[in-house]
Write a structure and sequence with these properties.
- The structure is a single chain.
- The protein has 578 residues and is of the alpha/beta class.
- The protein has 3 domains: 189 residues, Rossmann fold (3-Layer(aba) Sandwich), CATH 3.40.50; 155 residues, TPP-binding domain (Rossmann fold); 199 residues, Rossmann fold (3-Layer(aba) Sandwich), CATH 3.40.50.970.
- It is built from 24 helices and 19 strands.
- The strands form 4 sheets. The chain has a 6-stranded parallel β-sheet with strand order 3-2-4-5-7-6, sandwiched between helices. Strands 15-14-16-17-19-18 form a 6-stranded parallel β-sheet, sandwiched between helices. Strands 10-9-11-12-13 form a 5-stranded parallel β-sheet, with helices on both faces.
- α23 links the parallel β18 and β19.
- The chain is globular and about 80 Å long.
- The termini are far apart.
Length: 578
């Protein structure tokens, strides 16, 4: 039964009605506006999935828990509500744990809910079915972890998980629900009263006035200012204020990959095509929702024009993030929306535009690089390479700017980020801070379920292998997802050889001429093989028009691609050779 309203409690109490742990969990989630669960059924949570669906929740069942967890994380990023991943105990929990840790690293709000063995057996290590101290394992890898032992505490447990996932810097939360909990019963009226609707789980954190003034003074005195937008800026959904800040200041801006589209990549102040130049030459950098981690060379070294002498303004809700790699001259602590709004208000209507002797060279460099790229994209080699294939993808995304783009791989990721323009916010999902492979199908499913928009998933053939079986999930739920596998027969490329001369292929080489499109056909979807940009574009347009699950096997020159994409320096042996 569902939780009752206060007006109904008296009648329920008189009837002696009872409610069990299963329904208390479902009612607590629904009370907090959560209507979708991503997971995989099994002992002890199979009945929970059935009952949740019966109570009107959408339950998306995957083939592997890691992909369900990735879906929950992506849903959290897109909606600002914690995505829910539901798993079985022990191995299922461990499968979901990778996604939970990745969500925490990327500041995506999600809750991993796992069934577990009974405490009295686990604590004595008596060998229960799938026995594991899951709470202890999860704690170091997520933002918070809780266990609920009694039905009357389910409301509190879920409320604490939601608030922990959303407040401050968002992240992953683990909620442990032992099997006995689900069968516990209590008075239905008392059960309904025990549930908590979380009020203001992510309250505004207003920046200090002197911190805002310090940041504005530094920005006003800059000769070569730069604004750098990270995925935190996209998550914040402060789009109008961010645009006002950029346009009022006239400062060139550089979006990180998941911030692409906050302003259109074609915006007059976008400096993406002059990335190396602006990072090296800027003197004051305003970081909005971006961290100076490895993706930005830790704010140091040749990338930043060493010796830098740069000054940084950083907006972050976590004060401990400041000075994590380099000195932050003007820390601005607060939520991104409040901080950006304060900066815009402080600028007023007479703020001086960024100096022309800075913006002129930046935009000239950008335009020159874009012209060179246009020449490269116009070429039509046979077989296709990454550039010619992505020229087709670029055209399709431009024609359908509201489509979601999911992207993973090594070269496939790097080239897509730099070639395919985005036009709307939160339309691009990719591998994030850790740069991990395997997010593709989970993110794609979440994007389709949450937004209802067409999804284009651009996958390297290696990256696709991590989650490829989820094409069955895509077909089962009839999701409008077009998967494009860039197939060059291997990891990075398909030309490596076995150095020993033995019969085994090299570790980076896959089956030659694999037909990934047949996988989608096997589950009732549409499979297409494309060997030219024209065929690729035609197949993508047909997929979007039809809304049918589609997989396009895009055959790429197997010599295309470089070791590790653009992070060769992280591969010691390759870096040594170069």
């Amino acid at each position: 039964m569902t939780a009752t309203s206060p007006q109904e409690n008296h009648a329920v109490a008189d009837s002696g009605a009872q409610i069990d742990g299963f329904h208390l969990v479902i009612d607590a989630l629904k009370l907090n506006g959560i209507d979708t669960i991503f997971g995989l059924p099994g002992i002890p949570i199979t009945d929970l999935t059935r009952m949740a669906q019966g109570q009107g929740m959408r339950v998306i069942s995957f083939r592997h828990e890691q992909h369900a967890g990735n879906a929950a994380a992506a849903a959290g990023f897109l909606t600002q509500k914690p995505g829910i991943c539901l798993t079985v105990s022990a191995p299922g929990f461990l499968n979901g744990l990778t996604a939970l840790a990745n969500a925490t690293t990327n500041c995506f709000p999600m809750i991993l809910i796992s069934g577990s063995s009974e405490r009295e057996i686990v604590d004595l290590q008596q060998g229960d079915y799938e026995e594991m101290d899951q709470l202890a394992i999860a704690k170091p890898l997520c933002k918070a972890a809780f266990r609920v032992l009694h039905a009357e505490d389910i409301g509190v447990g879920i409320a604490r998980a939601i608030r922990s996932a959303l407040s401050g810097r968002p992240g992953g939360v683990y909620l442990d629900l032992p099997a006995k909990l689900f069968a516990q019963t209590m008075d239905a009226a008392k059960g309904a009263a025990s549930l908590i609707k979380v009020v203001d789980p992510a309250p505004r954190q207003i920046p200090a006035a002197d911190a805002v003034a310090r940041a504005l003074d530094l920005l006003k005195g800059a000769k070569r200012p730069l604004i750098l937008l990270g995925k935190g800026a996209a998550y914040a959904q402060a789009d109008a204020d961010i645009r006002a800040l950029v346009e009022t200041s006239g400062i060139p801006y550089l979006p990180m990959s998941m911030a692409k589209g906050l302003l259109p990549d074609t915006h007059a102040q976008c400096a993406s095509a002059a990335r190396s130049y602006v990072l090296a030459e800027s003197d004051v950098v305003l970081l909005i929702g971006a961290r100076l981690n490895w993706l930005l060379s830790h704010g140091k070294g040749k990338t930043w024009g060493a010796p830098t002498g740069k000054q940084f303004i950083q907006i972050d809700i976590s004060p401990t993030e400041m000075d994590s790699n380099v000195a932050i001259a003007a820390p601005l602590v607060g939520d991104i929306g409040s901080c950006v709004a304060a900066l815009v208000a402080g600028m007023g209507s007479h703020w001086p535009k960024a100096p022309a002797d800075w913006t002129g060279p930046v935009f000239s460099k950008r335009d020159a690089n874009q012209a060179k790229m246009a020449e490269t994209l116009a070429k039509n080699p046979s077989p296709m390479n990454f550039h010619s294939a992505l020229s087709a993808v670029r055209a399709v995304v431009k024609a359908h700017p509201d489509a979601m783009l999911v992207n993973e791989g090594a070269n496939t990721l790097d080239f897509t980020r730099s070639i395919v323009d985005m036009y709307q916010p939160r339309k691009r999902l990719d591998v994030g801070t850790w740069g991990i492979m395997g997010i593709g199908m989970g993110f794609a499913v979440a994007a389709a379920v949450v937004t209802g928009k067409p999804v284009i998933a651009i996958e390297g053939d290696s990256a696709f292998g991590f989650s490829g079986m989820e094409v069955e999930t895509i077909c089962r739920y009839h999701l409008p997802i077009c998967v494009v596998v860039f197939n060059n027969n291997g990891v990075y490329r398909g030309t490596d050889v076995n150095a020993s001369g033995g019969a085994d292929v090299a570790p980076t080489v896959f089956v030659k001429g694999a037909r990934y499109d047949k996988m989608m056909e096997a589950f009732g979807g549409v499979g297409v093989q494309a060997t030219t940009p024209a065929q690729l574009q035609e197949a993508m347009e047909a997929a979007i028009a039809s809304g049918q699950p589609t997989l396009i096997n895009a055959v790429i020159d197997e010599t295309a691609g470089t070791e590790s994409g653009r992070i060769t320096m992280l591969n010691p042996q390759t870096a040594k050779k170069t």
